[in-house]
Amino acid sequence: MNKLYISALSGCLCWSAMAMAATTPAPMTATQAKQLNAQAQSENALISQVQAAQAAKDWPKAESALSQLIALDPQRWEYRQALADVQLRQAKYAEAADSYTAALLAAGKAKLTPGIRQAMATMYNNEGNAFLKLKRNDDAIKAYTQAAQLSDKPATALFNLCAVQFNLGKMDGALSACDKTIAADPTKADAYFIKGSILLGNSTVDANGKTVAPPGTVEALQKYLQLLPNGPHVADVKAMLDYLNGVPPK
Question: What is the set of domains in the chain, with CATH numbers?
Answer without folding.
Answer: 37-152 (1.25.40.10), 170-245 (1.25.40)
